[in-house]
Amino acid sequence: MSDEPSAREPIAEDARIDALEKRLQAAREREEERNRLQVQGVDANYRSGNRVLADLLGGILGGAVIGWVIDHFAGTTPWGLLVMLFLGIGVAFRNIIRMANTRPD
Q1: Cα 39–chain centre separation
Q2: Over its length of 105 residues, how does the chain's per-residue pLDDT go in tens digits?
Q3: 5: DSSP letter
Q4: How much is the pLDDT for 102?
Q5: At what angle do helices 15-74 and 79-101 cross, to 10 degrees?
Q6: Is residue 78 helix, strand or coil?
Q7: pTM of the prediction?
Q8: CA–CA separation, 26 vs 48, rounded Å?
Q9: Which residues, 6 or more positions from 48, have their beta carbon under 8 angstroms from its beta carbon?
Q10: At 14, phi and psi to the nearest 5?
Q11: Using CA atoms, how far apart are residues 35 and 26, in angstroms rounded to an integer?
Q12: Three-class DSSP category at 4
């Protein structure tokens, strides 16, 4: 039999291995923190996109419905619908621009 240690025997404590383990642990913690923040950012972007979509649809549909009602009762077809539709689009864009200019929380 030989005097060489087998590969299955535990390795003696080494300062380089300890330093490497500490650096690996620090890298794992940084990676977890970075991924956690990324998930929150994606969620915030998803909410912002949904809000933009809701503002656009609400402005267009709201203006169209109100314009149609005005046309129906006042007999001004199609001018009430067109005016209120463009007004609704303008309000939707104003809301989107206002939201884009606010700082995220």
Answers
A1: 8
A2: 556 656 566 566 788 888 899 999 999 999 888 877 655 567 878 888 999 999 999 999 999 999 999 999 999 989 999 999 999 999 999 999 999 998 765
A3: P
A4: 86
A5: 160
A6: coil
A7: 0.58
A8: 33
A9: 99
A10: -135, 135
A11: 14
A12: coil
Alpha-carbon span 104 to 87, nearest angstrom: 28
Residue 23 amino acid letter: R
Whether the link from the prior residue into 10 is cis, omega within 30° of 0, is no
State both tokens at 4. Answer: 């060489």
Q: Alpha helix (H) ranges present in 1-105?
A: 15-74, 79-101
**Look-up: residue for tokens 């996109």?**
49
Q: Residue 45: which of 98, 90, 104 has the closest Cα? A: 104
Distance in Å from the first CA to the final CA of the chain: 69
Which are the contacts of 58, defined by CB distance < 8 A and separation ≥ 6? 88, 92
Tell me how far apart the alpha carbons of residues 43 and 37 are, in angstroms, rounded to a whole number: 10
Question: CA torsion sign, 83 to 89 to 92 to 93?
Answer: negative
Name residues whose C-beta falls within 8 Å of residue 91's C-beta, 6 or more positions apart in sequence: 59, 63
